[in-house]
Amino acid sequence: MFAVLLGLSLSGCSDNGVPDVKVWMDGVRQQTKVSIPTLSPPKKFTPFTYQGKSAVDPYNPGKLAVAFAKLQANSSGMKPDLERRREPLEAYPIDTLKMVGTLQKPGLNYALILADKTLFQVRAGSYIGQNFGMVSGITETAVELKEIVQDASGEWVERKAKLELQETKK
Predict the structure, then answer these.
(1) Could you tell me the sign of the dihedral formed by the alpha carbons of 76, 82, 88, 90, in that order?
(2) Per-residue pLDDT tens for 64-107?
(3) What would the pLDDT profile of 60-70 be if each residue is shown by its tens digit?
(4) Contact indicator for 93, 129 with CB cutoff of 8 Å
(5) Separation between Cα atoms, residue 123 and residue 102, nearest integer Å
(6) Is the pLDDT of residue 155 over 70?
(7) Strand bridging mode 118-122 / 98-105
(8) Which of 37, 72, 99, 151 has its CA 20 to 30 A from that of 79?
(9) 131 touches 91 (CB < 8 A)
(10) Which of 78, 89, 81, 85 has its CA nearest to residue 112?
(11) CATH 3.90.45.10 is held by the domain 88-164
């Protein structure tokens, strides 16, 4: 039995078909042509000459002072009054406030504003919202505001906004 197993295991070591593979590989090597692509010529280098040595230093304190003076001269002078006492509705963003009605007293119109389940009365000149919004007008259907916000350059600009009457469904 041992002799049979030894014979079978040694028969697996024969080179069945190996010479055929070697002949095929030799034929493919002879038929295949090697092609090497040509390299493109290198780009011409042109040196850069720095001309900034003779220019004015951009961080020169005198130049910066002139630039700041021009900036202040061109500014519109509009800015919010940060020293005044804040009103309760200035703690809320304008998009969370709802106009729910109006009141009229002799010579005055009031708007009813709902913020966090609390009802507030506002009149022309009252401040609303977090962008220094001042009530400029009240109609039966809307509260008109003038907000003071900073634009991309840091300048204070005036922007108009409006709170419209929120009608409830019955």
Answers:
(1) positive
(2) 787 777 766 665 667 888 888 999 999 999 999 999 999 988 88
(3) 888 778 777 77
(4) yes
(5) 10
(6) yes
(7) unpaired
(8) 99
(9) no
(10) 89
(11) no
